[in-house]
Amino acid sequence: MAQQRMHVQAPIERLFAERWSTRAFDAEKPVADELLASCLEAARWAPSCFGEEPWHYIVANRFADKMAWDGVVESLAPKNQLWARHAPILIVSLAEPAFSHNGKPNRWAEYDTGQATICLCLQAAAMGLASHQMGGFDADALKQVFALPDQVHAISVVAMGYPGDMAKLGEEFQPMETDARTRKPLETIVHDGQWGSPWQAPVNAGWEARYQETPVQQLPWFYRDLDADFAQALEQFDITAGDVLDIGCGPGTQAVALAKQGFNVTASDISQTAVTSARQFADTENISIKFHVDDVLDSKLAGPFDLILDRGVFHCFTEPADQQVYLATVRRLLKPQGLLLLKCFHQDETREQGPPGRYGEEDIRHFFADGFELVEMRSTLFASAVQNDPPKALFCMLRKS
Ligand SMILES: Cc1cc2nc3c(=O)[nH]c(=O)nc-3n(C[C@H](O)[C@H](O)[C@H](O)COP(=O)(O)O)c2cc1C
Ligand SMILES: C[S@@+](CC[C@H](N)C(=O)[O-])C[C@H]1O[C@@H](n2cnc3c(N)ncnc32)[C@H](O)[C@@H]1O
Question: Is there an atom of ligand 2 within 6 Å of 295 CB?
Answer without folding.
Answer: yes
